[in-house]
Amino acid sequence: MQKTLLKTIVSKQSKEKDNLLSLTYVERTKAKQDKKWMSSSLIKVVLGPRRSGKSIFSLMLLKDRQFVYFNFDDPALVGEKLDLYKLMDELHAVYGDTKYILFDEIQNLPGWELFANRLHRQGYNLVLTGSNANLLSMELATHLTGRHFPIEILPFDFKEFLRAKNYNLDNGENLKLLEQYMMFGGFPEVVIKNQHPRGYLDVLFDAMLFKDVVKRHKVRFSGQIDQLGSYLINNISNQYSFRKLANMLKFKSDVTLERYLGYLEEAYIVFSLSSFSTKVGERLKSPKKNYVVDNGFVTAKAIQQSPNNGKLMENLVFMELVKRGHNPNRDLFYYKTRNDREVDFALKEGTKISELIQVCYDLTDSDVEQREVKALVEAGEELKVASLIILTWDEERETEKGGKQIHFRPLWKWLIGKAGKL
Predict the structure, then answer these.
(1) Rounded to whole angstroms, what are the CA distances from 114 to 47, 101, 220, 226, 268?
(2) What secondary structure does DSSP assign to 244-279, as a single string?
């Protein structure tokens, strides 16, 4: 790359950084706890899907410090071979001799982990952002073992959504706003800038699929992975097995399908959830349940005319549990009783399940309520769990069944949390 072009890019991005820092942003739920890590020498790795607010979150973490900023997702860098020594020279020419550096979308730089490791050894305090969960696993585990701290930034949770809307909890619009959030999700551009949800999210989904899956993994049959992504979005909270799904979508093998699913998970597009079992082999063999990173994608890409509120609500609850730090297939599962009754979510603490959650949008049918309660009580007995919750759209009450207390909680209250503070 020509030195003059590199100088132009660094200068342009420096002005963009100053402009971004001058604006006001919605405070993220994680901001206070993660700001404490800024003085640590550990490399801070901010991960999450595209357009979820990683860059802004990282800028806010460093706002009170002098720091270098460079975005590796700049269109001007496409097709250019970057000389990293020259890059550091240009960055120091603009920002001075500061030791704090924010590198945006670092996964676009080939061999980024070696570069980051070298700068870390030289005493730089690094914040890296990336749109690929693989940064957490293979590359980081190989080169930055014990020297990094991961931070996940996902689309707005409900409290962040309400802050963005300047909402007062006493104004009586709880369910109206919750319905909006459940339908169109929490991507910041949709919530704050009122981008048309379907148009914006349709384009964003395609960009994530191309940049973070097809391009990154050099996928030859892009049509197949597009078909897979579309199927998963239209079948949230459904169970699947690799073999059946491969046959349905006409993949040559279930091995290929499993690999493609892994790519979609790495890109923070979908999540898979296993059934809980104390036997690891059974857990691995169990059918998986499928969830999507943001409800807005379901609304934008859905084939059906009217949305399934029950499935949207379950997807929303799953993502809220992930945002609260529950790790799918490590401390978050679904559960099937011995009589094949299903409980939506089982939360594990230590070696045991500590809480069981059912999600039910409509309890007007007594048979539906009886079915949900029966599954919950049965699972509670098998797993010896006392905390049994049914999340509802707007009902709040308690009932007793089989000697166990069942708590019915409105979704909006559960999303806000016990303190009820935004």
Answers:
(1) 18, 16, 28, 32, 24
(2) HHHHHTT-S-HHHHHHHHHHHHHTTSEEEEPBP-SS
Work out the angle at residue 127's Cα, subtended by the Cα atoms of residues 97 and 268, and round it to the nearest 5 degrees: 155
| Pairwise CA distance, residues 89 & 349, whole Å | 49
How much is the pLDDT for 144? 74
pLDDT < 50 positions in the chain: none
Percent helix, strand and coil across the chain, each to the nearest 5:
45, 20, 35
Distance of CA 396 to the CA centre of its chain: 29
Q: What are phi and psi of 392, to 5 degrees?
A: -115, 175
Contact by Cβ (8 Å): 369, 360: yes
Report the amino acid identity of residue 315.
Answer: N
Residue spans of the domains in the chain: they are 3-152, 158-416
DSSP code, position 138: H
What amino acid occupies position 290? N
Instruction: Report the phi/psi class of residue 369: left, alpha or beta, with left for phi > 0 and alpha for psi in -120 to 50.
Output: alpha
What is the predicted pLDDT for the residue at 173?
82
pLDDT of 139:
65
Q: Which residues contact 351 (CB under 8 A, 6 or more apart)?
A: none
Tokens 């319905």: give the residue.
Answer: 179
Question: Looking at domain 3-152, does it have CATH number 3.30.200.20?
Answer: no
Q: What is the pLDDT of residues 56-105, one digit of tens each?
A: 999 999 999 999 999 999 999 988 899 999 999 999 999 999 999 999 99
Radius of gyration of the chain, Cα coordinates, nearest whole angstrom:
23
